[in-house]
Write a structure and sequence with these properties.
Length: about 375
């Protein structure tokens, strides 16, 4: 297969972890006979310094002409901590999602048994955690009308949703639940928000088309508590943009390190794959950033194109790095290996002959219905 892949390294550690993902895709090329071409483009603070825009037109064009996008990270204190700035790096990512209509953000949350002791939560409550969050990505309060009074003493952010926006991601979430444990939890604040009441009406109506799936509706505050106390009780979580942002970051903390979990953002014609962590500017250039989340995003990219065996090989190599404790300092407290070394190890162990003792197979390895990721 030939794929044209746009590389958006972004800010902070983004380019460093993305470089390890490219190594892994090149290993897949070599082992499985595919051809991937890569086109780099700027986004975020690095783009602002060059062009004044967080998403230059050139970058948008490259993304629109690609088969898939690999994204690193975005943001820098230079802009984020400046309250007078009218443009900030994250606007580039928001605009990209909107322009490509990447309306569904899919974030699997899995606790790796070998790394379970990293989690701050009770081991007995997290070991079987295997859930996936479907977050609506192009609507809601992040994209609503914004206003600040002339004296700066009042501000307004508008949250708005349509039935169409809710329906299209709800169907994706129900289909995912149908192929997993057949449980879907809608997270909202229908007790106080009209948008949440619309979400609940639309999703409840759609549920009748999926009789195999059990729908449970849960308020956001309750869901936040249950994610900490009993994360292994969830299967598929469906929610809006802001609530999904909060819950998915909370989900990453369950695994013990924010550098372990991948995500995909998909629409009808485009798809982007990225780690869920931020730009971590304090670690930039220090060769300590964890590349695993970015590399597992590569596995999601491969699955998106039905390259299941190739995705399995990537995940198998990641699991091997855990088994041999070849990890970055945020994992297991080791400072022996850096970003580049871990990336090299994983890439060098990607092949078409998975280790049988790691129990890797098509049935249990899928990132969307996984017992591994």
């Amino acid at each position: 297969m030939y794929l044209n892949i746009a590389l958006l390294g972004g800010d902070g550690i983004g380019p460093e972890v993305l470089a390890q993902s490219v190594k892994c895709l090149q290993a897949v090329e070599h082992s499985f006979g595919h051809t991937f071409s890569f086109t780099k483009a700027d986004i975020g603070a690095v783009a602002m310094k060059k062009t004044g825009e967080p998403l230059p037109e050139k970058t948008l064009k490259i993304c629109k002409n690609s088969d898939a996008i690999l994204f690193g990270a975005i943001g820098t204190p230079e802009y984020d901590q400046n309250p007078t700035s009218k443009v900030w790096p994250e606007q580039g990512l928001f605009k990209l999602r909107k322009e490509l209509d990447l309306f569904a953000n899919i974030r699997p949350v899995k606790v790796f048994p070998a790394l379970a002791k990293l989690s701050p939560l009770n081991r007995g409550n997290i070991l079987d955690t295997d859930l996936v969050i479907y977050r609506e990505l192009t609507g809601g309060i992040y994209f609503g009308k914004k206003k600040v009074s002339k004296d700066g003493a009042k501000a307004l952010d508008t949250c708005e949703y349509s039935e169409k926006e809710i329906s299209r991601i709800a169907h994706l979430a129900f289909k995912a639940a149908k192929s997993r444990q057949k449980k879907l939890t809608l997270v909202d604040k229908a007790n106080v928000l009209e948008t949440s009441r619309l979400w609940r009406r639309v999703v409840t109506n759609i549920a009748s088309s999926y009789p195999e799936v059990t729908l449970n509706c849960m308020f956001m505050d309750h869901a936040a508590v249950e994610m900490i106390l009993h994360p292994n009780k969830f299967d598929v979580i469906l929610t809006d943009n802001m609530f999904g942002d909060i819950l998915s970051d909370q989900g990453s903390a369950i695994s013990g390190s924010i550098g372990l979990l991948p995500s995909s953002s998909v629409g009808l014609g485009h798809a982007m794959f990225e780690p869920i962590h931020g730009s971590y500017p304090q670690a930039k250039g220090k060769n300590i950033a964890n590349p695993v989340a970015s590399i597992l995003s590569v596995a999601m990219l491969l699955q998106h194109f039905d390259l299941i065996e190739e995705a399995n090989a990537v995940i198998s190599a990641v699991l091997k790095s855990f088994a041999k404790k070849i990890v970055t300092p945020d994992v297991l407290g080791s400072s022996k290996y850096g970003t580049d070394y871990v990336g090299d190890f994983i890439a060098n162990n990607i092949n078409d002959d998975n280790d049988d003792d790691l129990n890797i197979n098509d049935e249990n390895i899928g990132l969307g219905k996984s017992t591994i990721i």
